[in-house]
Design goal:
It contains eleven helices and 18 strands. The chain is an alpha/beta fold.
Length: 318
């Protein structure tokens, strides 16, 4: 029942890159099947790491992503399987002679824990590491650039925890090169035209903007929901997103264990996706007790058919 990932490929020539790379999708107990949780979101070749479990830097290498393009790391909570990879990654970037700032967005307490560790193992840092701490109790925008905003999604776990909503901003219109060349539009007019202006020729003829541009693709949204008790109210916060990653640590037969450890079953993750009307669901953070994670896929897909099982090195366009 797993979705063929070839169906995710986007053919729109105007669509900018926006894709999720899975580095690890296991839970706290190590296995030989999965690495601990870590992902990299590639937005127009800017890389955003989401959680950084052990081995994340090794998986980063395997994925052929470029360390130099990584400037932001978002940590959902301070359990080890989501952040033990930070010291190794920071040290490796130092060995590589990085000079650009590295920004770590994490719940309160992260700097107190990690700053001394970074200092101990990197006596001469070649670059600054900047912490941006936040409260996980309410949704707050923690990052913004010209093309993207990142907002926290409050979750319920055994310690302060949140997910993240990555929302693309509406882009400008796209120039139709053939039409611009035909009407001999000067280069200095292109920005105005991208922003909706008509073009008036030297002879006074008005060329409608609709002839010179095509509308941009709809902005995309990716929601990452890490460790959490089943939260039906979460559906409203991720309503209609293009891709939802939701933890699915347990099968329904282990629902009592899920409640006890503040985790979610695959069926519950699928109910969130269904209630929220999301386009696609990606499940991960699998318990070590399951030799084959397909049992989780089957349970989720029975409720929300457009479900995909996370796996290491999987790349999913949003």
């Amino acid at each position: 029942m797993q979705v063929d990932n070839r169906h995710f490929l986007i053919c729109d020539p105007y669509m900018e890159k926006f894709e999720v790379n899975i580095l690890g999708c296991g839970s706290a107990l190590p296995t030989t099947r999965h690495f601990p949780t870590s992902q990299v979101l590639n937005v127009r070749d800017k890389l955003f790491m989401i959680d950084c479990g052990e081995g994340a830097q090794l998986q980063f290498r395997k994925s052929r992503l470029k360390f130099s393009r990584l400037n932001r790391i978002f940590i959902s909570h301070l359990h080890g399987d989501h952040c033990f990879g930070l010291p190794g990654l920071v040290s490796t970037l130092n060995l590589l002679g990085r000079t650009a700032e590295l920004h770590i967005h994490a719940p309160r307490g992260a700097e107190e824990i990690f700053a001394p560790v970074f200092s101990f193992f990197n006596r001469q840092m070649s670059y600054p590491v900047l912490f941006h701490e936040f409260d996980t109790k309410e949704a707050v925008q923690v990052y913004e650039d010209r093309s993207l905003t990142v907002t926290t999604l409050p979750l319920r776990h055994r310690m302060p925890c949140c997910g993240f909503l990555f929302a693309e901003k509406q882009g400008a219109n796209h120039i139709v090169r053939e039409q611009v060349d035909f009407y001999q539009v000067p280069v200095y007019e292109l920005n105005r035209i991208k922003n909706g202006a008509d073009y008036v020729t030297p002879e006074g003829q008005t060329i409608p903007n609709a002839l010179l541009t095509v509308p941009p693709p709809p902005p995309r949204r990716y929601a990452y929901c890490s460790d959490t008790l089943y939260l039906p109210s979460l559906a409203e916060q991720v309503k209609g997103v293009d891709l939802l990653f939701h933890e699915a640590t347990f099968a329904e037969a282990d629902a009592a264990r899920a409640r006890e450890t503040f985790h979610t079953t695959a069926s519950q993750a699928a109910r969130i996706a269904s209630d929220a009307g999301v386009k696609r669901l990606l499940i991960g953070h699998f318990s070590a007790r399951y030799e084959e994670a397909e049992i989780l896929l089957h349970e989720a897909a029975a409720i929300f058919p457009n479900t995909t099982l996370a796996s290491e090195m999987l790349c999913v366009p949003v």
